[in-house]
């Protein structure tokens, strides 16, 4: 997959996060890079995951 905007990435990232797929920010960063070809730094992924928490309506994030 090519690069995607954070708005395109968020729904699947929310879904995978809700499933408990990621135990660390690094795992989430690697998953996004593998699936979307986008590399986030720690702060960028922290911000993205913070946004997923607010949009996941009760899904708990374990990262």
Q: Could you characterize the architecture of this molecule?
A:
This protein has one domain. It is built from three helices and no strands. The protein has helices spanning 6-18, 25-36, 42-55. The chain starts with 5 loop residues before the first helix and ends in an 8-residue tail after the last helix. Residues 58-63 have low confidence and may be disordered. With 63 residues, it is an all-alpha fold. The chain is 62% helix and 0% strand. 19% of the residues are buried. Helix 1 packs across helix 3 (42-55) and helix 2 crosses helix 3. The longest helix is centred in the C-terminal third of the chain and has 14 residues, at 42-55.
Mean pLDDT: 77
Helix amount: 55-70%
User: What value does the Rg take, in angstroms?
Assistant: 10 Å
β-sheet strand percentage: under 5%
By DSSP, the count of extended strands is 0
Order of helices and strands: HHH
**How many discrete domains?**
1
Which class best fits the helix and strand makeup?
Answer: mainly alpha
The major pleated sheet works out as: none
From the N-terminal CA to the C-terminal CA, the straight-line distance is: 24 Å
Number of helices: 3
